[in-house]
Design a protein that fits this description.
By secondary structure, the chain is mainly beta. Strands 14, 15, 16, 17 and 18 form a five-stranded antiparallel β-sheet that branches. A hairpin with a 4-residue loop joins strand 4 and strand 5. Helix 4 crosses helix 7. The radius of gyration is 26 Å and the shape is elongated. The two termini are 34 Å apart. The N terminus is likely disordered.
């Protein structure tokens, strides 16, 4: 695993200038007589798009333009805050040949709601307690519209503007909403009695730019794993920034030096504090890509943490400074530490996978009566019981992959890439799901998600990912997969400053196996993902930098 972290160090300068917010609008061009320029976003609306915008809803329904016209798959397209305009010559002359993109469908899919709750797909007609003017049923999609949402739908264009309902009303992030093929309706009771009681979601912006990344915590040192308790308290594992203590050779050259700079950070109602500090950390000059506390999991009245380790020679060279490296520990509410198990010692003594002897505990799952740990360097999944007994649940084999061109090997050459399991979660079915980073040469599309049932051979649940370093199941039972570099670590290393090619990504795997990208822009070397009790998604960002690390929340 540490070989991958060394490469990540060289990626930082290429990625640092990627913003953690959506891309800025381009400057407005000369509007001309057939265009209108909007200083609010720096874009124009021209010709038929302008005529359609003005006649069928304007600012209230479509919002400001957030792009100029552009070609998308051969179609002239323009994004607005709440809509996507598409020009289809001859398709609809009476409406300037403009059709609206199905943003509601697209966005609902990114949320994983197309085939799962709260979408009910019922075909019941409106109940008898609602009159014909208060409810409409749509057998085309199996949903109804009623009340204030129905009034708004009828008054502002109906089917042509919003499309069919693709959900019933339900609560999303504390607000009553309903999805349509082209839009999301939102009920704002704080504006009751005004024209703003029903508002439209900014789906054009959300689909074009992705969700907003709201910074929840910052100033973190190499933030990696994140976990959220049942009460909403958030915990982040900081690998630290090394220090001025004992130095040992790094496997990639140079040295990494010891310091007690690792920590577990606690965030309550936006307030950031240190639950426990002075945990071991190793890093080279500058403190990037530190080795230290790598994952955190919340149990009953405790927080469980795994700390990275290394080779037997490194542990021996560190002497007393090696204490807690490669260990599973727990922390109570008062910050007291209990040493549960020495995971590195288990690898050194047993080497279950038969590879090089090396230990890098990188993910932990606290199940109350036991812990599940993924060891990235040992390529295995371990179980630890309350008395500290360690057993092997699964090992993950290397795979043969195409040799990259820069190695100048003969055409068609292949080489082994280790699994490098970096994440573990438990699924709705009770099985364990394990995501792999993959080792060098970090093949694009080569990372897999394994499904592990104790006592059975692990099976591949999903494949085609790139450099996974986080897994979680969302509120609707869909699997979230975090990629540290969506185009591969090698591509990220070669990316120019500010090039989104160096970005990470969060994907959602739907029940039918479809993969949907949820977010990418602004994710720079993300280190972990977790879902809160309210369904909020949290990601550690700038996960290999000291002092610049963040915890962000995806806001739609």
């Amino acid at each position: 695993m540490r070989k991958t972290l060394a490469i990540i160090v060289s990626l930082i300068l290429a990625c640092m200038s990627i913003s953690s917010v959506a891309a800025e609008s381009a400057p407005a061009t000369d509007a001309g007589s057939n265009c209108t320029a909007y200083e609010a976003t720096g874009h124009n609306i021209c010709a038929g798009f302008r005529a359609y915008w003005e006649k069928y809803g304007g600012l209230a329904v479509f919002g400001y333009p957030i792009t100029d016209e552009m070609q998308v798959d051969g179609v002239t397209t323009q994004y607005f805050e709440r809509a996507r305009f598409e020009w289809h010559p001859g398709a609809w002359p009476e409406r300037f040949d403009v059709e609206l993109g199905l943003l509601g469908n697209t966005y609902a899919t990114t949320l994983g709601l197309t085939t799962t709750a709260p979408f009910t797909h019922h075909t019941d007609a409106c109940g008898s307690d609602l009159g014909a003017d208060d409810c409409m049923a749509f057998p085309e999609t199996g949903h109804t519209i009623s009340g204030k949402f129905l009034n708004y739908w009828k008054a502002n264009g109906g089917l042509a503007i919003f499309g069919y309902p693709i959900s019933d009303e339900y609560t999303e992030n504390g607000r009553t909403v309903q999805y349509f093929e082209r839009q999301r309706f939102e009920l704002h009771p704080e504006n009751a009695g005004t024209p703003y009681e029903v508002q439209l979601g900014l789906l054009g912006d959300a689909v074009y730019n992705g969700p907003n990344l709201t910074v929840v915590a910052q100033g973190l040192n190499n933030p990696r794993g994140v976990a959220v308790g049942a009460d909403g308290t958030i915990y982040v594992a900081e690998a630290g920034s090394g220090g001025n203590g004992t130095c040992v050779p790094s496997e990639e050259g140079g040295q990494q030096c010891y310091g007690k700079t690792g920590a577990i950070v606690k965030i309550v109602n936006g307030e950031q504090s240190v639950l426990v500090g002075n945990l071991p950390s190793l890093a080279g000059d500058g403190g990037t890509s530190a080795l230290g506390p790598s994952a955190v999991s919340v149990g009953n009245d405790r927080v469980s943490v795994v700390v990275q380790a290394g080779t037997p020679d490194m542990i021996t060279a560190l002497g007393d400074d090696a204490a807690l490296l490669g260990h599973l520990i727990t922390i109570d509410n008062a910050g007291n530490i209990t040493d549960v198990a020495d995971l590195a010692a288990y690898e050194f003594a047993n080497n279950p996978n038969g590879d090089d002897v090396n230990s890098d505990p990188y993910a932990v799952l606290d199940l109350g009566d036991k812990w599940i740990v993924a060891d990235a360097a040992a390529n295995d999944l371990l179980q630890v019981t309350a008395d500290g007994t360690i057993t092997t649940l699964a090992t993950f084999p290397a795979q043969m992959v195409d040799a990259p061109p820069f190695l100048h090997m003969p055409p068609g050459s292949q080489m082994p890439a280790q699994s490098v399991p970096t994440s573990v979660t438990v699924g709705p079915d009770g099985a364990y799901y394990v995501g792999e980073l993959t080792g060098f040469p970090f093949p694009v599309g080569g990372a897999r998600v394994w499904r592990v049932v104790p006592g059975q051979e692990p099976t591949v649940y999903a494949s085609g990912f790139t450099n996974i370093d986080g897994l979680a199941f969302d509120a609707n039972g869909n699997l979230l997969v975090l990629e540290i570099a969506k185009n591969g670590l090698n591509a990220a290393q070669a990316a120019a400053p500010g090039d989104p090619a160096g970005a990470g990504a969060l994907l959602r795997v739907l029940p039918d196996g479809t993969k949907v990208e949820v977010a990418s822009l602004g994710l720079v070397m993300p280190g972990g993902v977790a879902v809160g009790p309210d369904g909020s998604i949290y990601i550690t960002n700038f996960g290999v930098l000291p002092g610049a690390g963040q915890l962000v929340r995806l806001d739609y």
